[in-house]
Specification:
single chain, 788 residues, alpha+beta, Aldehyde Oxidoreductase, domain 3, Aldehyde Oxidoreductase, domain 4, 7-stranded mixed sheet, 5-stranded mixed sheet, 30 strands, globular, binds pterin cytosine dinucleotide, binds CU(I)-S-MO(VI)(=O)OH cluster, Ald_Oxase/Xan_DH_a/b_sf, anaerobic carbon-monoxide dehydrogenase activity
């Protein structure tokens, strides 16, 4: 593990300790549940015990009679206000509180507002709901059976089909396959998983009955997007809505969407005239907020007999649960899945994705995923391994032979995406060298001879982050530009206001470093303001690792605007033409006379003073910027995982994990490595432990951390990290996003390693001891269902 000297604060890029940590380590973070507003009430949600049932009646009279209950809201109450359904971010509608039917176990049925949380919970037990249970559709592979119960009769659907989506050229791909010497195919399930942040989701709504202003404190990764959704759904004008995200205890995609509890809290506040707090518990979080993955994939890969990859053909069945999508770029129903040609120079590729409804919780995209790239990378990286195994080729060599070459960038993929930059062979070579790949293979052969199971897994990934260019994506019709505002005070201290929202990524530090790099002031002198729509410019927030690609670019550009304003002021101070000034180490120097110079602090003071400025030049240095990304950024990485498997129990131990990431220029290498450490732990969790499974009636079998297992330090080795740096050519500071890279790239490395150890062609994640043991017997399980 690398250690970082963080003693002195750099004036720009470089490892420095996170400014926010002093506060967090002292327990001075202020999370949603820490906030107590005067007169605040507390809410709880009654949830459906059934996965699919008709609601015959809801009797709230006993709950309303509870002395501490202030209001009971049902689907009927909301229907009267036109709020029983809300739009999802994927062109569907979701029930806020069920009226006609419940469609997944844990669905919201009634909302109780009371004097305290205990009373609210108690009163839930006093509500009588009569259900008429219906057969449930749990297995996505049977969702389109002619006799499958129809889930979305509210949409007058006659089946559970949501969409068909295709990408790539089918005819060209078929042609490539017809000429191929070898084809390998595989069925893979990427099981349903959950972001499971440490802090669950919640909201405090406060409608001021006098001013008509709605203030919402909420756990959101995208405060401005939430404000617009509230405006569109509730019909409250945007300037009368303030969304405030306090400290966020982890998001991982879980806090992108708007959940029914948030809308109910607003209604609760309108009805009672008092602030209403709703915070979910762990089971509610796991059962009813946005899951991820749940992709059933059939993939084929074609190659020549000398190991040149030709093409990939994929069919996907996507289980979206009962309502489609918490967050999905709306022009792309399968998210960014169709970057599944991965990091290889392929002639042709084609995929078709069919989305279906099932009686499971909705969501479907977000969990450190870059919107389905996780699934895409898993698919191609497993197919390459399966092909290598079938043909007796070395999986690392097969990858090296087929990676996109450095001179091919910018590289247009068979699916039409333009990868901006990379040196893939160098990245893979660095990882193989760091791991000592050849030596590991020798060790493995020796161990095999002794009957010991050791496995080596390789993966290479290309991520696509920084949503996004208008031609590709929007959310609710909103383009994905983000704003930045930079104010420089007379003493040279600065305030940066951003639309993105940190949830643990260290934005308070890293964005201050971007300003520091551009202006030559200390990052300690830059305060980063986020998470309050009244205080920050509009933008779509933090997900898809877009903060650095989009808000980071906006920050660099706004700082450059400030710098150019400073140049004019400095030229007046130093009595030379602006073009005679050079910006060197944070000072403007007169060309040829470095003794004549001015620092940013001196210039800031002068800008606010009575200094005579040239005609038409405003004083002050403040500037604003809106950044429209011209393309996504494409970070990449090469991972090598080494595992040992206990032949008796199937228990997997991850012995080593080497990760070489290329995210372009690193603003704060220590923060980047922290992001990668977290993502690698995520990957081990996905590969070995995590899956939300259901029984045939749709009962959720992972509603607590007793059943939904998360990785801890015990399961993780000491990470071995390396890097390559290929700047993004279109990003002002050459940086690419990195927040999801390791989560995307690591699961196939772990799975490839385990299957390499046990000599099995494929078994679905999570590779629990039971699953590994069964795979060794030739009988791996379907891991999404309790009964197979
Ligand atoms: N960074 C850097 N140099 C780069 C790239 C990034 O120094 N070349 C720094 C950034 O300045 C930022 C951090 O690394 O401080 C992550 O940056 P970026 O890749 O832009 O990702 P975002 O800030 O947009 O964060 C979102 C991403 C996503 S989508 C999920 S999901 C996820 C992730 O971040 N959720 C997280 N990492 C997380 N980390 C924590 N602790 N908590 C979460 O909820
Ligand atoms: Cu896809 S999880 Mo992150 O983008 O918030």
């Amino acid at each position: 593990m690398t250690t970082h000297a963080a003693a002195s604060t750099p004036l720009g890029f470089g490892s420095m300790r996170r400014k926010e940590d002093a506060r967090f380590l002292r327990g001075a973070g202020r999370y949603l549940d820490d906030i107590v507003l005067p007169g605040m009430l507390h809410a709880a949600i009654l949830r459906s015990p059934y996965a699919h049932a008709r609601i015959v009646s809801v009797d709230t009279s006993a709950a309303e009679a509870h002395p501490k209950v202030e209001a009971v809201i049902t689907g009927e109450t909301l229907a009267g206000l036109g709020l029983a359904w809300m739009p999802t971010l994927s062109h569907d509608v979701q029930a806020v509180l069920a009226t006609d039917k419940v469609r997944f176990q844990g669905q919201e049925v009634a909302f109780v507002v009371a004097e305290d949380r205990y009373a609210a919970r108690d009163a839930l037990g006093l509500i009588e709901v009569e259900y008429e249970p219906l057969p449930a559709v749990v297995d996505a592979t049977h969702a389109l059976d002619p006799d499958a119960p129809v889930i979305r009769d509210d949409l007058h659907r006659t089946d559970n089909h949501i969409f068909d989506w295709e990408a790539g050229d089918a005819a060209a791909t078929d042609e490539v396959f017809s000429r191929a010497d070898v084809v390998a195919e595989c069925d893979l399930l990427y099981p349903r998983s959950h972001p499971a942040p440490m802090e669950t989701c919640g909201s405090i709504a406060s409608m001021d009955p006098v001013s008509g202003k709605l203030t919402v404190h909420t756990t959101t990764q995208a405060p401005h997007a939430h404000r617009t959704v509230y405006a569109l759904v509730a019909g409250i004008p945007e300037h009368k809505i303030q969304v405030i995200a306090p400290d966020i205890g982890g998001g991982f995609g879980n806090k992108v969407g708007i959940y029914p509890g948030y809308v109910c809290a607003v209604v609760g506040s309108i009805v009672t005239g008092r602030p209403v707090k709703w915070v979910e518990d762990r089971s509610e979080n796991l059962m009813s907020t946005s899951f991820a993955r749940d992709y059933h994939m059939h993939g084929e890969i074609a190659a020549t007999k000398d190991g040149t990859l030709l093409g990939v053909r994929v069919k996907v069945l996507a289980d979206h649960g009962a309502f489609n999508g918490t967050a999905q770029p709306s022009k792309l129903p399968a998210g960014l899945f169709h970057v599944f040609s991965g990091s290889y120079d392929l002639r042709a590729a084609h995929c078709s994705v069919t989305g279906v409804y099932t009686n499971k919780c909705p969501g479907g995209v977000a969990y450190a995923c870059s919107f389905r790239i996780t699934e895409a990378v898993y698919l191609i990286e497993r197919l390459v391994d399966v092909l290598a195994r079938d043909q007796g080729w070395d999986p690392a060599e097969l990858r090296m032979k087929n990676l996109i070459r450095p001179e091919q960038f910018p590289y247009r993929t068979a699916l039409g995406w333009e990868y901006d930059s990379g040196n893939y062979p160098k990245t893979l070579r660095t990882a193989l060298d760091l791991a000592g790949y050849a030596e590991l293979r020798r060790e493995q052969a020796e161990k095999r001879a002794r009957g010991e199971l050791m496995g080596i897994g390789v993966s290479f990934f290309t991520e696509a982050v920084g949503a996004g260019p208008r031609k590709h994506m929007d959310i609710l019709g909103l383009g994905m530009a983000d704003g930045a505002e930079l104010r420089v005070h007379p003493t040279g201290k600065a305030v940066l206001r951003l639309s993105c929202m940190t949830q643990g990524q260290g934005h308070q530090t890293t964005f201050a470093q971007i300003v520091a790099e551009e202006l030559g002031i200390s990052p300690d002198d830059v305060e980063v303001v986020q998470g309050d729509t009244d205080q920050t410019p509009f933008g779509l927030g933090t997900y898809g690792s877009r903060s650095t690609p989009v808000s980071g670019a906006a920050t660099a550009l706004v700082a450059r605007k400030v710098r150019e304003r400073a140049r004019i002021v400095a030229s007046a101070m130093l009595e030379v033409a602006p073009s005679d000034l050079e910006f060197v180490k944070g000072r403007f120097e007169v060309r040829g006379d470095p003794a004549a110079s001015a620092s940013m602090a001196e210039i800031a003071m002068a800008a606010h003073s009575a200094l005579e400025l040239p005609e038409g030049v405003e004083g002050h240095l403040d500037a604003t910027c809106v950044y429209n990304p011209p393309n996504l950024t494409y970070p990449c990485g090469a991972y090598v995982c080494v595992v040992d498997v206990d032949p008796g129990t199937g228990q997997v131990t991850v012995r080593r994990f080497v990760a070489v990431d290329d995210c372009g220029v690193r603003i704060n290498p220590m923060v980047v490595e922290g992001q990668i450490h977290g993502g690698l732990a995520d990957g081990i969790g996905m590969a070995l432990m995590e899956a939300l499974a259901f029984d045939p009636d749709g009962n959720h079998l992972g509603a607590s951390f007793m059943d939904y297992l998360l990785p801890t330090a015990l399961e993780c080795p000491s990470w071995e990290l390396g890097e390559t740096v290929t700047p993004s050519p279109h990003h002002p500071i050459g940086a690419k996003g990195v927040g999801e890279s390791a989560t995307v790239g690591s699961p196939p490395a772990v799975v490839n390693a385990v299957l390499d150890a046990i000599g099995v062609r494929h078994a679905d994640m999570p590779l629990t001891p039971a699953q590994v043991w069964r795979a060794m017997q030739g009988r791996p399980l379907r891991t999404d269902l309790s009964v197979t």
